[in-house]
Amino acid sequence: MATQLTRRLALLADEKHRAVLAGGLRGIERETLRVDSAGQLARTRHPVALGAALTHPQITTDYAETLLEFITPAQSDIGTTIASLDGIHRYAYSKLGDELLWSQSMPCALPAEKDIEIAWYGTSNLGTLKHVYRRGLALRYGKAMQCIAGIHYNYSLDERLWRVLAENEPNPKQLGAKAYQSEAYLATIRNFRRHSWLLMYLFGASPALAAGFLRGRPHQLEQLSDDTLYLPYATSLRMSDLGYQNDAQSGLQPHENCLDSYVAALTRAVNQPYAPYAELGTKRDGEWIQLSTNVLQIENEYYATIRPKRVIQTGERPIQALCARGVQYIEVRCMDVDPFEPVGISVAAGRLLDAFLLFCALDDSPAITPEEGARHTANFARTVKEGRRPGLLLDGDNGPVALTQLGADLLERIRPAAELLDSLRGDTVHADTLRAQAAKLADPSLTPSAQVLLALRQHGNSFAAFGLAQSEKHAAYFRSAPPSAADAAALDRMAAESLAEQAAMEAAPRTSFDDYVAAYRNSNLCHSTPTCD
């Protein structure tokens, strides 16, 4: 009997449907700290030559003034996307002087909290809102945690593909096109939650960190050297409980059984007071210190490994966009920066993600119960802290299973999706990368996390020394071939236009910031009643 996966793969392999499978888009957001030639956090402002962080479409800042974020255009092939990312890096290096881009997800040795400068976006109400939001993050999570960098992978399938699937469902639900697409993306997200531990094993690259990063917090890490802490079998400390977490969010688990439920949970969180934040208030000595005293200041504060997304319109909030027009794409947020890749991610990793996400989109994806959700969370947590431990067991559907066996079985299930993608291209790049990932399951020393620990030993077991060496190596790579004249001119235009746009925003008449925040907080979020359990 054909499964949903085999039935859908066969449908999309049909000649008349192959064009819709070739559609879809891939985009990458890469975060990276600016550091000086000694590997210390840069103390300079965001370079004006790069444009305005508030309004530039491809070069901005994340939390800190020194935490750059590069955003590629959405492309139909990940190879093209990564080529765009490479071009942005080359342009940035042409404007950075002697500064370097930090090569790791975990930050360099950081100065005192007071000396980490929060990103500044100018004096417009929107710019001030973004800055105050980050002040709130500093209060809630500390500045060091906000200096962690990652790779965000934005993925969509052609909207026509969802219509093809809907028209060929054996037991169709009576849903409109928008609702069907949203439900299908939520099903993809549920399967991602089931299986994303595998990505942490295959691509996790942060088994160690600078000793000062934890700022005296209790931990169970081991001392690798005077300046470095680690766990011997960890894959991604960035994605462990040492990374993005706090008590307020610990009880926030908006499940993805349907969009209404997801939206309702986030809407509650941005409207629900949280006593420790209320004690701090929103202002101190007349200065805004956070946008609200609720569990979340805004919905983007929710830290998740994957999110449903919709491109927002001017003045629109993310939840409003999802409610009004449904899910447009998904954002995978758990990928570490690969310190061995100059742009932080390889084309091969992108190919694997494409096959993995297509599998998640096409395979059967029943609702996740709270008990099942806890099991998936535990598997993920176990993998990030001890994924390479010999004999490590994860909790499978029918009891404990060796991680290596569970991973090999999962790759075999993904293989037909990889082969279908290859059939569109007329080559074997997706199947080839699948075989390379299978080799990592057979030999953990091939994983990026193991390779990082090996490289650390070659640098005196110093995270700082390894990070600086890789940053210098990547800088030499980019500086050896500056951007083409055409690429440089295009990004120069974007920089000039972004500066002009910010200046116009700041010169325009506006309401008081207090009124602006009040209007933002009172903007019409979705208050629909969840229609799923």
Layout of secondary structure:
Elements: H1 4-13, H2 18-21, E1 25-35, E2 59-61, E3 67-71, H3 78-93, E4 100-101, H4 125-141, E5 151-156, H5 159-167, H6 177-195, H7 197-203, E6 208-210, E7 222-225, E8 228-230, H8 247-250, H9 259-271, H10 275-280, E9 283-284, E10 287-288, E11 306-309, H11 318-325, E12 329-335, H12 347-362, H13 370-386, E13 393-396, E14 399-402, H14 403-425, H15 429-442, H16 448-457, H17 463-479, H18 485-507, H19 513-521
Antiparallel strand pairs: 1-3, 1-4, 1-5, 2-3, 5-12, 6-8, 7-8, 9-10, 11-12, 13-14
Helix pairs in contact: 1-14, 5-6, 6-12, 7-13, 12-14, 12-15, 14-15
In total, how many domains does the architecture comprise? 1
CATH fold label: Creatine Kinase, Chain A, domain 2
Helix/strand-derived class?
A: alpha+beta
How many helices? The count is: 19
Rough outline: globular
Main β-sheet description: 7 strands, antiparallel
Task: Give the C-level CATH assignment.
Answer: Alpha Beta
EC number: 6.3.2.2
Protein name: Glutamate--cysteine ligase
Catalytic activity: L-cysteine + L-glutamate + ATP = gamma-L-glutamyl-L-cysteine + ADP + phosphate + H(+)
GO molecular function, one term: glutamate-cysteine ligase activity
